[in-house]
Amino acid sequence: MEIKSIEKLTNKKILFTLLTLSYPIIIGDAMHLMYNLADTFWVGRLGAEYLAAISLSFPLIFFIFSFAGGFSVAGMTLISQYIGAENQKMANLAAGQVLVVSFIISVFFSGIGLILGEELLQMMGAEVEVLKPAWEYFRIIMWGIPLVFIYFVFSSVLQGIGDTKTPMKLKLITVLINIILDPFLILGWFIFPKLGIAGAAIATIFSRFIGAIIGMHLLFTGKKGIKLKLYHLKPNKEMIKKIFKVGFPAAIGMSALSLAMTVMTSIVTAFGTYTLAAWGIANRITSIIRMPAQGMGRATGVLIGQFLGADKSEEVGNIAWLGAGVTFGFQILVAIVILFIAPYLIMLFTESQRVIEIGSYYLRIAGFAFAFLGVQQVLSESLKGAGNTVEQMLFRILTLWVFQIPLSLFMAYTLELGQKGVWWAILLAKFLGVLAVILWFMKGTWKTKIID
Asked: How far apart are CA 389 and CA 175, in angstroms?
């Protein structure tokens, strides 16, 4: 397949291209989030302890997703730069190698999760009535981890070439399957048995299995700009080195996020089941709040990768700052709206007045915290597009492990603010984190490509 079949991005207006690339990513992420939202909605009908079970297991699941998912970052980075350099052959090879590496890593962590998962959930301090359903949900999800990562690679590959619409369409298909299956499997509608929380996990894994099959079909038939052959799956030492150079720091950074979520969940668990349930619901809502930043960030990273591959490094600074500015303005508007509607958002998932009260308080603070985080996300994705994942990793660790976790403990216990101290610590940590990134980013030393 000739490179001319792939639409070039480096000759278009920057703002238009960012918006064009980002909106399918945002819609696709919304569809992806619907996996968890649908599970939360229907599982919530089983009781607060089942909501708490999903909240408890989610950080561990996210850790395993994120570590292998970090290597899909290498796919986006390498492919975007090879496309910018008009090297289709190497783009195809990078796609095949990333697929193999990510799959092997996902199988490894799936096995670890099945062996150690129950003990890890116990270590997080789960109450007795929460531990059993949490392990039931977690165990089933672990069996489907390799399928999930096939889809991750598919998305990163197509985003690297500038196609963000196809992953969006595939997510829509899989989410609809999941949403349709959820009530039948969870509550036992029609002829289906009532599987409870296990039904939520089965629906999620089955829908992603369908997505993996479709994604592989598109990559191996070459219908979307990348055409894989079996020889692309044979280990290539030099390409694997590049993948690990970019992907390993990205994986560590994403794992640092997921581990921090696990620690934060443990901190929140100490305040009881109601607070844990509120935390889980609010986190799903803030995942929606973060979507514009995630979409703009990935669009920025793809565009920067192609510009660097095409040796147009003088433009990449403007791309990054423009993406960050647009994101911050939009996120602040969202935060203001949330001040007024926070209780109604929590009510969508629970009827417990105590959960609504706790979740609303946190959500109002989180709206502004994630405005700061949005800027950091865009700048971090800019670093990924350039292949500077070590710096991106360090700033993520700084924000979460140096700022957020210590501040949460300090404000909750030393200042005796309880759970409210945790919420305010998150806001302060996000502000300090983005300030550090901005100060370093202004140096401009990140504007280099990683391909030859």
From this structure: 30
Distance, C-alpha 299 to centroid of its chain: 14
Q: Which helix (H) or strand (E) covers residue 372, if one does?
A: helix 353-386
Distance CA 356, CA 402 (A): 30
Instruction: Retrieve residue 331's tokens.
Output: 């996120």
Other residues' Cβ atoms within 10 Å of the Cβ of residue 401: 16
Record the tokens describing residue 210, joined without a space: 């369908």
Name the token pair of 159. Answer: 């985003």
pLDDT band at 1 (very low <50, low <70, confident <90, very high): very low
Q: For residues 231 and 216, what is the distance between their CA atoms, to the nearest angstrom? A: 15
Q: Would you kindly state where each structural domain of the chain is located, as residue ranges? A: 11-441
d(CA 331, CA 73): 24
The span from the CA of 302 to the CA of 313, in Å, is: 14
Distance CA 290, CA 397 (A): 19
pTM higher than 0.90 = no
Going by the DSSP 8-state scheme, the letter that residue 192 receives in this structure is S
Q: Biggest alpha carbon distance in the chain?
A: 64
Cβ proximity of 26 and 218 under 8 Å: no
Q: Taking 60 as the threshold, does the pLDDT of residue 360 lie above it? A: yes
Q: What is the DSSP string of 7-47?
A: PP-TTS-HHHHHHHHHHHHHHHHHHHHHHHHHHHHHHGGG-
